[in-house]
Write the structure tokens for this entry.
Amino acid sequence: MKKQLITSIVLAAFAGVALAAPQAFDFKDPKGVNNAVFKLDAPLEAITGSASGITGIVTFDAENPGATTGKIVVTAESLTVPNPMMNTHLHGAMWMDTAQFKEITFEAKALQNVKTTGDTTTADATGNFTVHGVTKEITVPLKLTYLKGKLGLRVPKMEGDLLVIRASFTIKRSDYGINPTAPADKVSDEIELTLSLAGASPK
């Protein structure tokens, strides 16, 4: 009996370790819903667009959210604005030059100010942001929501967990060499970015 009790305790300990192991979440969304929205709010014109070509892997540990690391990739060619002429300019050499600079990326290196309440964690993620061929270290406020066992509610017939990421932050065009001489009254130097993403960890 004593031997069986010890065995049960050891197995339970190993099970606990397994449950606490970090998980890799894939942000290539089979539904195509994941998106990044960008906005330039100049005095004469407010330009709003989006991107849907999003992939990436984020490693998350529900027992230690502060150890989260990962990389989110946006395909530059998926950037779009409603006005057809503006859209052509957006992809051209003077602006995003998507033929040459094919990806926009953020690679998180460390999280600070981590606070977890229930399934939700807020933190400031410091990492490398790359756009238009220029890389700068920035800090981005994040909200991470871990939804254990909820993958099937989003993607039918798939079992597993979800990690939802929400982030909003601002960069400057001039910092990344995106047509820095454009008139500021028509095109804001500040670009507001909002990410709404869900990643999957299938079982």
Remarks:
- The longest strand covers residues 103-117.
- The beta strands are 23-26, 35-41, 46-51, 54-60, 69-75, 103-117, 120-131, 134-147, 160-172, 190-202.
- The CA atoms of residues 140 and 172 lie 14 Å apart.
